[in-house]
Write a structure and sequence with these properties.
With 385 residues, this protein is an all-alpha fold. 62% of the residues lie in helices and 0% in strands. It is built from 17 helices and no strands. The chain has helices at residues 3-11, 24-34, 53-83, 89-122, 130-139, 147-159, 175-186, 188-191, 212-217, 227-232, 244-257, 262-282, 286-289, 292-295, 301-307, 319-339, 347-377.
Length: 385
């Protein structure tokens, strides 16, 4: 008996009118995770395509894996390299895994439990969007944040940032960034400072975890890192945001598969680069003088632009709107870094701000297109005969 027949037999008690009908959404989540759903849309606009939402989410997860594996490595590397002790690659990966895997487990357990509960309560299918959100949330957190804070941040993001708006496809804010923002403002001592970005920095003498932007914000321009360190990611920071190289690999996957918008990515880079270059000309403090190319490689900029600014739900939808949205994300990211040292990373608040304005951007883009077409249709026809 094949897997399909086994699942069909197990599914019988969950069919309409059967004993476990109420819990059918929970069981169907397993079915559609393994197989393409056997139903299609019947109303409204739809696209004929062999890829469903779960497969799209899995593509994003595959794109995230290089950054995740490097984040596990860098967590162990930052810890052992500052202790000045002998260590091996296995030691590094084991230490990183013991810190990060439990965070991922908590994120999925809490988030999926809430998703399943809402699906059963509302009588609809389980929303697939949390497959990505559940991995993103731990990846953008400091390594030593307590697990209960991760769970509480996840619950807030799913309840307030997502389900309150109706679930997947209805939220106006990126859920992963909503979780990070909640943790940042609710527990600031665990989300900022020089003791949260390197594993056990607060417990081991001589271990410092200050980020590059944090050092610059405090007026310290004597950076111990080279541009190649920033590009490769061997610097302190959020778990999986440090390596621009690994993020670029993920970006290529998203662009090649058509899942991520290259317009938003490129627009964000252009916006940040232009703003950074203008500040370099001014250069009255360390953050303004910080090279615009380095701005693109630190503070989680690349990770945020590739994996969260391009969220198809909370980002702009029109072609021109994506360019405007991306340019403003890059612009505001650098502005926040330079003018508000309390938030030196900047990209989180920039993306959340533009999430709020994305519908407005699309509205005016569409209105502009409508007016242009009306003007074109009302032009008098000139007879040249």
């Amino acid at each position: 008996m094949n897997i399909r027949n086994t699942i069909d037999n197990l599914k019988k008690p969950f069919n309409r009118g059967e004993k476990w009908e109420k819990f059918a959404p929970a069981f169907n989540a397993l079915d559609t995770f393994l197989f393409v759903p056997n139903h299609t849309t019947k109303h409204g606009a739809h696209i004929r395509d062999a890829v469903d939402l779960k497969r799209t989410m899995i593509t994003v997860i595959l794109a995230l894996l290089p950054a995740l594996f490097y984040g596990i490595y860098n967590t162990g590397y930052q810890y052992f390299s500052q202790l000045n002790v002998d260590y091996t690659f296995v030691d590094v990966m084991l230490h990183g895994s013991t810190k990060i895997v439990p965070m991922i487990a908590v994120s999925y357990i809490v988030g999926l439990a809430i998703e399943f509960a809402f699906a059963v309560f509302r009588g609809h299918e389980v929303n697939e969007g949390y497959l990505v959100t559940g991995l993103l949330i731990p990846m953008i957190m400091p390594v030593d944040i307590p697990l209960w804070m991760v769970g509480l941040s996840v619950a807030f993001a799913v309840f307030i940032g997502k389900e309150a708006f109706g679930g997947t496809g209805m939220n106006i804010l990126n859920p992963a960034l909503t979780a990070r923002a909640f943790a940042f403002f609710a527990y600031p001592t665990y989300m900022s400072g020089n003791q949260v970005w390197v594993s056990e920095a607060s417990n081991v003498d001589g271990v410092s975890g200050e980020t590059i932007l944090g050092m610059l914000a405090s007026g310290d321009s004597s950076l111990p890192y080279q541009p190649m360190d920033m590009f490769m990611g061997s610097i302190p920071g959020s778990i999986a945001e440090t390596s621009t190289l690994m993020v670029l690999i993920g970006a290529l996957v998203l662009i090649y598969t058509g899942v991520g918008s290259w317009r938003i990515m490129l627009g964000s880079v252009i916006g940040a680069a232009i703003t950074g270059m203008l500040f370099n000309l001014w250069g009255v403090n360390e953050l303004m003088s910080f090279s615009w190319t380095s701005h693109l490689m630190v503070g989680g900029f690349a990770f945020g632009v590739v994996f969260m600014a391009t969220d198809p739900v909370s980002a702009a939808q029109t072609v021109k709107g994506k360019w405007i949205y991306g340019l403003l994300v890059g612009l505001f990211c650098i502005l926040i870094r330079v003018f508000n040292p309390a938030y030196p990373e900047g990209v989180m608040l920039a993306i959340l701000l533009m999430n709020v304005f994305a519908p407005t951007i699309d509205h005016y883009v569409i209105e502009s297109n409508v007016k242009r077409r009306l003007n074109r249709s009302n032009k008098p026809i000139v007879n040249i005969a």
